[in-house]
């Protein structure tokens, strides 16, 4: 699809792993707004979501020469999976990771998706990243749009995405997703009144979106 636009989108496989790790090394761990506010970029191979790349739900965007220029890592979200993430928050010794997971957990708790929508699984868009030189061409939007389509075809009743930055949130809004939790970073403070994340402009809030299918 979209070959005339200078890129195409296909299902990711495990053989894309090395290219995706390099893409994430340069354009996710350093640029995703919350990660980039941490003390140092994490090693992309430590990203929990990476293991879902070749499981038949994730997408890559490739340029005309076949290079991977975008990725959307998806998997099935379940209450057990989210409980597991909450346990990781308790056990991790990485302070930044603990802070990130605390915010994500708070969002899930307030949004209360499992009860509110009466579901026990959703299509989870976990990581979306586009190469710096290919931004603003609609690749991010096409990756999310294709994910929404895939979710529908596979019988999911809901799609879920946590947006830490303004551009991914803009894409979710443009595709008609509903914001079920939001918090401006300037209002997210610890018990001493200190900002938890110093997120660079123009990324001003965290938003959790869903789309009912
Ligand atoms: C978020 C991201 C995937 C968007 O990818 P993209 O291919 O540039 O997205 P699109 O081209 O579909 O553009 C989405 C919107 O953001 C805008 N946008 C994207 N990059 C922009 C930039 N650097 N400056 C201004 N606007 C920008 C686009 O103009 C578009 O809005 P519009 O339709 O109103 O014009 C990309 O910015 C990225 O990889 N960021 C780093 C990783 C990250 O933060 N991931 C998301 C975490 S939740």
TrEMBL record:
InterPro entries: Acyl_CoA_acyltransferase, GNAT_dom. Gene3D superfamilies: 3.40.630.30. It holds the Pfam family Acetyltransf_1. Residues 7-192 form the N-acetyltransferase domain. PANTHER family: AT07410P-RELATED, N-ACETYLTRANSFERASE-RELATED. This is N-acetyltransferase domain-containing protein. It comes from Dryococelus australis.
């Amino acid at each position: 699809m979209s070959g005339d636009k200078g890129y195409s989108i296909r299902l990711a496989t495990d053989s894309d792993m090395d290219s995706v790790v390099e893409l994430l090394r340069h354009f996710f761990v350093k640029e995703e707004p919350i990660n980039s506010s941490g003390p140092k970029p994490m090693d992309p191979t430590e990203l929990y979501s990476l293991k879902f790349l070749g499981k038949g739900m994730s997408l890559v965007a490739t340029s005309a020469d076949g290079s991977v220029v975008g990725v959307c890592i998806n998997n099935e979200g379940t209450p057990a999976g989210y409980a597991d993430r909450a346990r990781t928050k308790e056990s991790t010794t990485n302070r930044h990771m603990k802070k990130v997971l605390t915010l994500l957990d708070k969002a899930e708790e307030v949004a209360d998706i499992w009860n509110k929508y009466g579901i026990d699984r959703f299509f989870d868009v976990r990581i979306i990243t586009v190469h710096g030189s290919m931004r603003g061409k609609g690749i991010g939007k096409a990756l999310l749009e294709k994910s929404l389509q895939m979710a529908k075809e596979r019988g999911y009743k809901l799609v879920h995405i946590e947006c830490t930055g303004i551009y991914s949130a803009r894409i979710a809004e443009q595709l008609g997703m509903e914001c079920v939790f939001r918090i401006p970073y300037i209002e997210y403070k610890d018990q001493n009144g200190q900002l938890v994340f110093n997120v660079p402009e123009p990324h001003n809030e965290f938003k959790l979106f869903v789309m009912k299918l």
